[in-house]
Each structure stands twice: as structure tokens, then as C-alpha cells.
Specification:
The structure holds 2 protein chains of 2 kinds. By secondary structure, chain A is mostly helical. Chain A contains 12 helices and 2 strands; from the N terminus they run αααααβααααβααα. Helix content of chain A is about 70%, strand content about 0%. Chain B is built from 13 helices and 14 strands. In chain B, β8, α8 and β9 form a beta-alpha-beta unit. Chain B: Pfam families: ANF_receptor (PF01094). Chain B: Keywords: Amino-acid transport, Membrane, Signal, Transmembrane, Transmembrane helix, Transport.
């Protein structure tokens, strides 16, 4: 193993962690702030990825676009599109309580996946979109990874600062009030439905941005990327493990889970050669076991939601529904 | 718990760092496949077939000065996230000279776009059939040993036109297989050859009756129904109901329809007007050699994509030998060892190939799944034939061009 290789691998992991951290931040707004159980992250991820791909690729036959615009426009478009898709969904579905909302959003993510897979005019169908330009992609292997990492890191920092400000602002307190006791919040004159919708759209826009950055990094997006395992449930694991309700926790969770997810494969590869294929299943088992252990021994996550003063006397998480 | 988790993660990384210092004499190739995920049932046989090539290389003198070839297995989980992760590890941590895989097209596109093309590593996929792979700006580093979905659909269209088929209706299963084939067929039959497709409709899987679909398809007066579906599934139902109700006179199927289930269920006597296309290569000496060797290690040679996986690994090994182990020269060497010129090398003939390469002579690998003479896009044309139902099952009518 050369040092250069190790650096390249670390850069790759860092880029993926930043992308997943954005998705986890988006989910944190929805679940951590507003208590909305969104199990359809993959859908918004896909909307963002495809929107940005359509906006920024070169014109192609047989589908709309590409419009060959700058990737920044693509990323903004991705956020807008994901937010726009979230609006009617939120309007209809946010009346559901937690687990009903989860079922509805799983269904919606699946609808989005099927539409993407079977509408060649919109998304090139099952073949997906390739040759998406990658910012700074013309540089060498390591240089382009470094450049891309700087870009995604900058985006992540901006997103973190914005979300953290919102969390500490009156808006954040109000959201938590709605989450913890909807009736009380309503009695104080808060427009619960509208605020929930706000949180849902805001979170979905961040997920869309994460999807766009993923598509540009890989220079391609296919329906296979909208796999709920890696585009929904893995992000839930990150948020729960990191600590829902805590933005730093969401980012930390993304880092820890992705590092374990990725590095565990190298560890299980040390098994004897005859077990090379079986080792891959062992890895999935280890990840599941880890989640079980965390949920059993530290249900509030690595970095629990910060509580201020004596404003709440109950333990965090005790009053969740 | 926090510290414990960190300790665990750190421990894993440390163990990795210590354990993965390679013995200097090993040459590694990555075998990236969808071990977990939707194709988990197919992947082990494909990886075993590739490992067979590795084993044969090592038994017959190894790479270069007797260095050992090692196949490093990675899990792409059949999605881009897993594919790029596995490819990054193979390229950077294991230091592979080339990759066999990933298996699924989406993973191939992503792994090529973000890892192997920038790093200048050769990638040969044994099962990525998406036409998008042809269009990658890959600096000649991406190859495949399986034909693109485009080829079969277009070849079928040309053959049908030659055989004088007129107006046709097309029914296809609504998934990537059915859609890909149907669109390629339509593009060639209508746009290139000026043929007439009266109805072009997708159908969903697993319904009890397709009579309403068939009635719709029969409108427009086509006498031939082209079915892109699976002969042991929905395709069989459609064919049966079309025969029962006399909607069409003639039937044409893609390779999925060339299934013994069709003959067993419907009877050969009812299928005199049914033909289907399918890849051939089945009779070649190369395939016999591979089948025998793969049976010898306990594999099932009929497993799907086993022969393409073997070919990909063997080709990569030949290219590495030809390039003298230099990673940057492997891609060019892949086309040199299999371009139709030079002494023929069959599966398993590593020793012979090694001697010829050492002597500076040209070699031409004739693979189990085809000749693998790559075009400029790294694609293989694939060889197809049209089959009809005879007294002994499927029989070749004509080669397809």
C-alpha cells in the first residue's frame, strides 16, 4: 500500500462523508427538529441528482436537456426541484402521524424511482445519465479529488452554519415545541401545518443538493443509485447514531458510519482467500450488529440533542412518539 | 461508548494498515461484483469463474517472473455508492493493476467516472450491458466482454428485415432488459430500415391475462408479434394467449424467450411460426475448454455471465503480462492481445500465451463467450443467431449480422 493510495482513499471517503453529512443534515431538520419520519430520502436525493444532471450535461438526443449550464446552476436547480417536489407531498402527507408518514414517504420514494426508471424522455430511463461534468474534473486523479473535496466541504460548512443558526433561532425552538407537544404549540398560536411543511421542504432541498453533488462526483446517475438501502436507511443509521436533533451529531454520524461501512470491508478481506465472498456478507452483519448495540446502549446517539438550562426537565428522547 | 466506537474504528484502520502491506511479489487484480444486493444470487459464480482464471495463471507460471496473481474481491452491492467505494479501495489500498467488474451497469458508470478513468486503471466488466458504457469518455480504459443491449436488438431488426417480415407489433417487459432491447430494435427497424411497427407497448410482469394487451397490440394489422420478455415468465403467458386467440400469425422473441419452458408448455407442433434470437458461441472449442475447467473446480458452467467473467479475468491477466506489469500500459495491451491477429490462445492456455508474449509474438485470445475483438469503444459485437423450434428443441435458422 502506497502512501499516495492511502491519501486518495482518505479523500474519497471524505467526499462521500460530506455528501452523506448533507443528507443527514437534511434529515435532521425533518426528524431532529420537526419530528417528521421521512423514510423517502432516496426520492429527494434522486430528484436533486437528476435535475442537476439534466441542467448541466451537454444536449442529448431522446431526452429533455441537457442544457449545458454551469454546475452551480445545476446544484441550485437541484435544491429548488427537490423543494418543489416536497411541497405537494408535504401538503398531502404531513397530516399523517409519524409511522404513517414513514409508510407514505417510502411509497413516494418508490414512485419517484419508478417514474425515473420508466420515463426515458425525462431521465433516459433505466440507462441513466452519464458524462455529467465534474467540477475541476480535468485535473489529475488526486488533484481533482482534492478540489472536489474543497467544494463539497465548503457547501457542507455553509449548510451547517445555516441549519445551526435556524436551530438556535426562535424558529428552531418553535419547531422543537411543535415536535414535542403539538397541541401546546397550537394553543400558543403556532401554525403547525405550515411550520411542518417548511421543515419538510427545507430538509428535502438539502437532500436534493446532496444528490446533485453525488451525481457530479460519479459523473453519472442511474436508477440503481436510488437504492433505499444506501440512500435512505444508511442515512437514518447515521443520524440516529450521531444523535438526532444535533447538527454536529448528524455530521459525526455520517463520518463514523461511512468509515465503518467502508473500512470494514478491508478488515473482513483479511479472512482467508476461500471466504472472500462470504466475508462481504459478514460485513453487512457487523454493521447491523453495531446499530443494534448503539440503539441498545446509547439510544440518544453519540452527541445527544443539546438541552439548555432547565427549560426541559425530562430526559431527551423520553417523550418522543 | 463514544470512545469505544472510535477505538473500534481506529483499530480496524490500524489492522488494515498493518495487514494490507502486500508481499512484493504479488500482482493484484480487483474482482468487483454485486456480492450483496439484487444480483447476490448470480455474483458468486461470476467471481468463482474469474478466480478460476487467476488459479490457472498461477498454476502455469504466474505473471512476469513467476509472480503470483491475486484476485481481490470487492462488493459493489450493484449500486454506484458501493461500486465507487469498492473500486477506490481496490485501486488505492490494494494497488490493483486492473479491475474485472463491477457487475451492474450503474456501478460500472460510477466506478469508471470517479475512480478508474481518472486513475488510469483498466476496467473490464463482464455483465454491464448498458449502452451508456459505450459512450463514456474513457481514454480507452473501459472494456466489456458482454455485448451491449443495443447489439441484439439491432441485429434482430436487420435479420427480420432480410427475412421479409413486414408490419410488426412489439410487446416488451417494462424493465431495463425489455426496454433496452425494444428501443434498440425500434431504432433499427423503423429509423434505419424503414420498417413498420404498428404498436409498441410495455407490459407489467406477472398478470394472469394479457388478452386486453394483445387485443390492443393486434390493432393496426400487424401479422407478427415481437416479444422482449422471459420465456419462463410473463413472455410465456403472452405467447400462449396470443396463440389461443389467434391474434398474430408469427412470433419473434429476444434471447429471454429462447427457453425450454416455451416448448415444454406449448408443444413444438404449435410453435412452427416462432423464432427467437440468442447469443451463440455455444459450440466453440473455447467454451468447451472453459466448461470443463469450471466443472473441475466445482462451478456450474451454465451460470449466467460465468464465461464472460472468466474471459474478462483471463484477458486482463494476458494484458498485464503483455504490458510487463505497467498499470498505464494495460489498457492498450487489452486490445493487442485480442484483436483477431496472431496465434490463437484458448481459455486456460496461459503457459503458451506467456511464452509467445516473451518471444514478442502477437497473440489473439479466443474467449469462452466469444472472440472479444474490441472496437474503439471497448465493446464486443457479440454473435447472435436466430433459432426456430424443431423436433429436437431449438435449432439455428441463420446467423445474425
Amino acid at each position: 500500500m502506497e502512501f499516495v493510495g492511502l491519501v486518495n482513499y482518505a479523500l474519497f471517503m471524505a467526499i462521500f462523508i460530506c455528501i452523506y453529512a448533507l443528507l443527514a443534515l437534511g434529515l435532521n431538520i425533518q426528524w431532529g427538529f420537526a419530528g417528521l419520519f421521512n423514510a423517502g430520502i432516496a426520492g429527494f436525493f434522486a430528484v436533486g441528482a437528476y435535475t442537476s444532471a439534466i441542467i448541466s450535461t451537454a444536449p442529448a438526443d431522446g431526452r429533455i436537456g441537457g442544457f449545458d449550464l454551469h454546475f452551480v446552476i445545476g446544484w441550485i436547480g437541484a435544491m429548488l426541484a427537490a423543494g418543489l417536489v416536497a411541497w405537494p407531498i408535504g401538503k398531502i402527507c404531513l397530516r399523517f402521524r409519524s409511522d404513517y408518514l414513514a409508510i407514505a414517504t417510502i411509497g413516494i420514494a418508490e414512485i419517484i424511482r419508478l417514474v425515473i426508471k420508466s420515463e426515458p424522455v425525462l431521465t433516459n430511463g433505466a440507462r441513466g445519465i452519464s458524462n455529467i461534468p465534474r467540477p475541476a474534473g480535468d485535473l489529475g486523479y488526486m488533484e481533482s479529488q482534492i478540489a472536489y473535496l474543497i467544494i463539497v466541504l465548503a457547501v457542507l460548512i455553509v449548510a451547517y452554519v445555516v441549519v445551526e443558526r435556524q436551530f438556535n433561532a426562535p424558529w428552531g425552538r418553535m419547531m422543537r415545541a411543535i415536535r414535542d407537544d403539538e397541541d401546546a404549540a397550537r394553543a400558543m398560536g403556532k401554525n403547525v401545518e405550515f411550520r411542518r411543511l417548511e421543515a419538510f421542504i427545507f430538509g428535502a432541498a438539502l437532500m436534493g443538493l446532496g444528490g446533485a453533488m453525488f451525481a457530479h462526483f460519479n459523473r453519472s446517475i442511474t436508477p440503481e443509485a436510488i437504492d433505499p438501502m444506501v440512500a435512505t436507511f444508511l442515512i437514518w443509521i447515521m443520524l440516529i447514531l450521531g444523535g438526532s436533533g444535533n447538527n454536529r451529531g448528524a455530521i459525526l454520524g455520517a463520518a463514523v458510519v461511512w468509515i465503518i461501512w467502508s473500512v470494514s470491508e478491508i478488515a473482513t478481506d483479511r479472512l482467508p482467500h476461500e471466504y472472500a465472498v462470504q466475508a462481504k456478507y459478514l460485513r453487512l452483519f457487523l454493521i447491523g450488529l453495531m446499530l443494534q448495540l448503539v440503539l441498545r446502549f446509547r439510544p440518544e446517539g453519540l452527541l445527544p440533542e443539546p438541552l439548555r438550562g432547565d427549560q426541559r426537565s425530562t430526559k431527551s428522547g423520553a417523550d418522543r412518539h | 461508548m463514544k470512545t469505544k466506537l472510535f477505538a473500534l474504528a481506529a483499530g480496524m484502520m490500524a489492522a488494515t494498515a498493518l495487514a494490507s502491506v502486500p508481499a512484493q511479489a504479488d500482482v493484484k487484480i480487483g474482482l468487483i461484483g454485486g456480492v450483496s444486493g439484487p444480483i447476490a444470487a448470480m455474483a458468486p459464480a461470476m467471481i468463482d469463474a474469474a478466480q478460476l482464471a487467476v488459479q490457472q495463471v498461477n498454476e502455469q507460471g504466474g505473471i512476469g517472473d513467476g509472480e503470483k496473481l491475486v484476485g481481490v474481491v470487492g462488493d459493489s452491492a450493484c449500486n454506484p455508492q458501493g461500486g465507487t467505494d469498492a473500486a477506490t479501495k481496490a485501486v488505492n489500498i490494494e494497488g490493483v493493476v486492473g479491475l474485472v467488474g463491477p457487475h451492474c451497469s450503474g456501478a460500472v458508470l460510477a466506478a469508471a467516472g470517479s475512480v478508474t478513468i481518472p486513475a488510469g486503471i483498466t476496467l473490464i466488466t463482464p455483465s454491464g450491458t448498458s449502452p451508456e458504457i459505450s459512450g463514456l469518455e474513457d481514454k480507452g480504459t473501459v472494456f466489456r466482454t458482454v455485448p451491449s443491449d443495443d447489439f441484439q436488438g439491432r441485429a434482430l431488426a436487420r435479420t427480420m428485415k432480410e427475412m421479409g417480415y413486414g408490419k410488426v407489433a412489439v410487446a416488451y417487459l417494462n424493465n431495463d432488459y425489455g426496454t433496452g432491447l425494444a428501443n434498440a430494435f425500434k431504432a433499427e427497424y423503423v429509423d434505419e430500415l424503414g420498417g413498420d411497427i404498428t404498436q409498441f407497448a410495455a407490459h407489467e410482469e406477472g398478470k394472469a391475462s394479457y388478452r386486453s394487451n394483445l387485443a390492443e397490440l393486434a390493432k393496426g394489422g400487424a401479422d407478427t408479434l415481437v416479444i422482449f420478455d422471459y420465456g419462463d415468465g410473463t413472455g410465456l403467458t403472452i405467447l400462449r394467449q396470443a396463440l389461443e386467440n389467434g391474434f398474430f400469425d408469427k412470433f419473434v422473441g429476444g434471447d429471454g424467450m429462447k427457453s425450454d419452458a416455451v416448448i415444454n408448455e406449448l408443444g413444438a407442433e404449435n410453435l412452427s411460426n416462432f423464432v427467437s434470437s440468442s447469443p451463440v458461441g455455444e459450440q466453440s472449442e473455447s467454451l468447451d475448454k472453459f466448461n470443463e475447467a469450471f466443472k473441475g473446480v466445482g462451478g456450474d458452467p451454465d451460470a449466467i455471465f460465468a464465461n464472460t467473467s472468466y474471459d474478462a479475468a483471463f484477458l486482463l491477466a494476458l494484458a498485464v503480462e503483455k504490458a510487463g506489469g505497467k498499470k498505464e500500459d494495460v489498457a492498450a495491451a487489452v486490445t493487442e492481445v485480442s484483436n483477431g491477429e496472431g496465434e490463437a490462445i484458448l481459455p486456460g492456455e496461459w503457459k503458451k500465451a506467456k511464452e509467445l508474449i516473451a518471444a514478442g509474438k502477437a497473440i489473439d485470445y479466443k474467449g469462452a463467450a466469444g472472440e472479444h475483438n474490441f472496437d474503439a469503444k471497448g465493446d464486443v459485437p457479440g454473435t447472435y443467431a436466430l433459432f426456430e423450434v424443431g423436433s429436437n428443441g431449438f435449432e439455428v435458422v441463420t446467423e445474425m449480422q
